[in-house]
Amino acid sequence: MQRFDWSDAKQKIGSVAVLVLLSMAARPAFAGATFPTAVDTAFGMPIPPRHAPFGVQASLYASIVFAAIGLIVLMVAIHDARRTKTALPVFVALSGAFCAIPEIFIDIAGGCFWPYAEGHVVYTFLGRPMTWYPIFAWFGFGAVLAYVPYALFLRRAKISWLWIGLAITCAFDILVEEIMLNVPGLYVYYGQQPLILFTKFPAWWMFTNIPGVFFASALAWRFKDDLKGWRGLLMFALTPTAFLAVFGFAVMPASIVILGNYSWLTTQIGGLLTSILGLTASALIIRIVLNRDPLALSERVG
């Protein structure tokens, strides 16, 4: 008869106990990394931190940096436009800036807030005042997210390079957001944000932001013959719409835990599920829009 291993049993029981405690402990997940805010007593949801301080000087400097990034990407797009004799690369690079419009929708669902001050508000949707800073941020950030994949499409890159390109933009997202979030007065995340892997950036966001703009770039490539000439201006509507579509596809698990009051483990699972859905969206885009097997790494974009 095989002897019962008590040490192995104790280890398994201990692991289960830890998981149970994590799942039952209703405490804020990474509370110190998100902006403190009150909870609405009627709905049980975190109240947006409308009184978060707005850094006028910091937002000016950050806007200049993003403007420079966007202009660099735009110069690359102009070079490709001349080489391919079509203006579509330019429209793709510029279209990322228009994601500043649906930014308000994703902020509400995802627990993000851009501070503001009187005299600096450019537009207001759904009770969310927005300054020039998020517009410039999307001009630079969106240009990178939109044009990295499109530049790969132009060069008939292998599927493996598409995944590498997505990984590079993820790294860019982490770097940029970790820097911005540690500069007071630019923008904040609030609520119970999952998957904060470093200091303040909830990593699940990159699995909605990047696939969303990737979707727009893939559509631009798929319908490049229909977007010739001034019809390329349609990218200014297509990119924010595609961006919001992928966000809607993936965000629900993360949004539920962010705007609720769940345990640490449940909160992380919500973020993980959204991340998986974002990766699934990327694979579906490659399969359906680009008509390529997302796992056929040596196959090239057509």
UniProtKB/TrEMBL annotation:
Transmembrane helix is among the record's keywords: yes
Keyword annotations of the record: Membrane, Signal, Transmembrane, Transmembrane helix
Residue ranges crossing the lipid bilayer per the database entry: 55-78, 90-116, 136-154, 161-183, 203-221, 233-259, 271-290
Range of residues in the leader sequence: 1-31
Protein name as annotated: Carotenoid biosynthesis protein
Organism for this UniProt entry: Bosea vaviloviae
